[in-house]
Design goal:
This protein folds into 2 domains: 125 residues, no CATH class; 79 residues. By secondary structure, the chain is mainly alpha-helical. The longest helix has 25 residues. The protein is built from 10 helices and no strands. The N and C termini lie far apart (47 Å). It is globular and about 45 Å long. α1 packs antiparallel against α4.
Length: 216
């Protein structure tokens, strides 16, 4: 890899490391989101604990940073769009930004599970298939009420949808979709145990908490 490519990978990791939910909780609500609710530093737990007004911006930014990390290659390099080396770099950037979200250097390496950030990555690399995967997630959530189950089933369905419905030809993109299908269940293994025991909490958004007076 060139020095510029290595710099982009480092920037992607730093971008992923921006702990949106942690900073929103600390700055506006004087709490660490990782000590409340499911103790996960992600958009779902932010909505659960702090409400929609805090959770939606967290979700949007976490998606955006995944998309932006991959697009850094398009914005800062001059390689042709169909260059296989460019695609490989984008996949490496995708892995770097998700790694940053899960293990953020700015938050003691205790981050979220990477679902929203992977959605942003998907929007950059799988601009059509990702919407079908998102639809799978929404349907499972509406039917069963579990965000974790929706995330797991959507992730597992991802390579199936990409390969058989959209006839993906790139082995690199197929490999990344399979990686997602394995990675998301691994990061949700505690949720899987709770689901099997019938102890997993259904998604119930909390009431939007007011910011402290000095922050308003």
């Amino acid at each position: 890899m060139t020095p510029l490519s290595l710099t982009l990978v480092f920037l992607a990791y730093l971008l992923g490391s921006i702990p949106t939910s942690v900073w929103v909780g600390r700055i506006f609500f004087r709490l660490d989101i990782r000590e409340h609710g499911s103790r996960n530093a992600g958009a779902t737990n932010t909505i659960r604990v702090l409400g929609w007004k805090a959770g939606i911006p967290v979700f949007v930014f976490d998606v955006f940073k995944g998309w932006l990390a991959v697009k850094l290659a398009d914005f800062l390099l001059t390689a042709p769009a169909d260059d296989p080396q460019l695609l490989i770099l984008k996949i490496i950037l995708a892995v770097a930004v998700v790694t940053g979200h899960v293990f953020p250097v700015f938050a003691g390496f205790r981050g979220g599970k990477g679902v929203a950030t992977m959605l942003g990555v998907g929007m950059a690399l799988y601009p059509v298939a990702v919407w079908i995967v998102l639809l799978v997630f929404i349907l499972v959530l509406l039917i069963f009420g579990y965000v974790s189950l929706g995330s797991i089933i959507a992730a597992i369905s991802f390579p199936i949808i990409d390969i058989f419905l959209f006839h993906q030809q790139s082995l690199f993109l197929i490999g990344l979709s399979i990686f997602v299908a394995l990675f998301i269940p691994i990061t949700h293994r505690k949720n899987i145990r709770r689901l099997l025991k019938g102890e997993e909490s259904k998604f119930r958004p909390g009431r939007s908490k007011k910011m402290p007076n000095h922050q308003m």
